[in-house]
Write a sequence for this structure.
C-alpha cells in the first residue's frame, strides 16, 4: 500500500497536518531553498554565495531573474539533459536573445567557451565562460506542440511529452511575457554539426556530468526548458535531469580575452558596459 493510500485528509485539520508533514520532503526534482542548502554545491564555490539551486525534471522547466555578474551553471547529470535557453534583459525585456547575431558577431555558429549570447541591440546578454560538453545547438530552436504531437502522439503541457515551446511559454508567463515575446532559443548538451551540403549531422550528448557556465552581462530573465532536442533521432521521449546553480560573480571586463578577441566582440562588450554604467549597474 502506498503512502497516498494511507494519508488522512478526511477533515480540514487532518489535511493541514498531512500537508505540514510533507514540508521537509525531498524530491529528485526540486528547487533548494535557500540555495545554500543544495545537496550538490559546485566544487570550489562557497554555498553561501549561491542564489539559485535546482534540479529540473525531465520534461520540466525553470525560470529566474538574476543580477548582472551572476554565474549560472547548467549541468547534464545523466547525459540526457537538453537545456533550451532564452535570456531577456530584465530591465527592458523587449531586448532578448538574438540567435542570428549570436552566430554572426563572433563569426562562429557553434557555441562553446568564450561565446557571447547577443541581443538584437548589439549588446551581450551573457557569455559562455566554461564548457565541458561541447555538444550544443544554435540552429534548430526547440520543439513545438505540432512537432511533438507528430513524433510522440502527445504534446499536452503536463502530459508525458511536453514541447519546449510550451514549457518556455509557461516560464515566460511568470514574468509577464507571452508567446509573441519568445524568439528562437539555443540549446545545450545535445549537439549537431552542419555538413557542406547544409544537412545536419546529429552528435547527441557528450555524456554525463558535463556542464556549461554562463555569465550574466546584464540583469537577466532566464528561461530554461529541459526537453528532448527536436532532431533527437530516438523515437521515445528521452531526456534526463538538469541541474542548475548560480552564484555571485563579476561581469566581463572589456579587456578580458573573450571580450577583446575581435573588433566585433569588443564593440558588443563596450555597448554592454555603456548600457550598464548609464543605469548604475
Amino acid at each position: 500500500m502506498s503512502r497516498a493510500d494511507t494519508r488522512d485528509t478526511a477533515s480540514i485539520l487532518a489535511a493541514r497536518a498531512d500537508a505540514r508533514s510533507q514540508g521537509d520532503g525531498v524530491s529528485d526534482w526540486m528547487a533548494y531553498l535557500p540555495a545554500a542548502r543544495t545537496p550538490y554545491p559546485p566544487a570550489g564555490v562557497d554555498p553561501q554565495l549561491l542564489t539559485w539551486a535546482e534540479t529540473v525534471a525531465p520534461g520540466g522547466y525553470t525560470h529566474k531573474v538574476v543580477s548582472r555578474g551572476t554565474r549560472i551553471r547548467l549541468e547534464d547529470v545523466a547525459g540526457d539533459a537538453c537545456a533550451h535557453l532564452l535570456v531577456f534583459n530584465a530591465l527592458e525585456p523587449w531586448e532578448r536573445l538574438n540567435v542570428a547575431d549570436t552566430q554572426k558577431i563572433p563569426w562562429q555558429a557553434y557555441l562553446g567557451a568564450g561565446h557571447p549570447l547577443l541581443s538584437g541591440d548589439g549588446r551581450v546578454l551573457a557569455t559562455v565562460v566554461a564548457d565541458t560538453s561541447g555538444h550544443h545547438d544554435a540552429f534548430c530552436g526547440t520543439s513545438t506542440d505540432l512537432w511533438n504531437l507528430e513524433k510522440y502522439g502527445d504534446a499536452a503541457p503536463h502530459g508525458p511529452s511536453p514541447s519546449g515551446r510550451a514549457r518556455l511559454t509557461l516560464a515566460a508567463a511568470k514574468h509577464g511575457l507571452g508567446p509573441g515575446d519568445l524568439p528562437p532559443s539555443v540549446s545545450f548538451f545535445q549537439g549537431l554539426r552542419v555538413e557542406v551540403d547544409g544537412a545536419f549531422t546529429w552528435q547527441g550528448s557528450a555524456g554525463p556530468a558535463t556542464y556549461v557556465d554562463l555569465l550574466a552581462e546584464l540583469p537577466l530573465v532566464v528561461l530554461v526548458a529541459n526537453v528532448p532536442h527536436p532532431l533527437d533521432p530516438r523515437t521515445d521521449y528521452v531526456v534526463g535531469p538538469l541541474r542548475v546553480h548560480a552564484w555571485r560573480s563579476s561581469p566581463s571586463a572589456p579587456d578580458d580575452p573573450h571580450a577583446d578577441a575581435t573588433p566585433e566582440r569588443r564593440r558588443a562588450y563596450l555597448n554592454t558596459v555603456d548600457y550598464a554604467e548609464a543605469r548604475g549597474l
About this structure: DSSP finds six helices and 14 strands in the chain. The chain has a mean pLDDT of 94. Residues 55-278 form one domain.
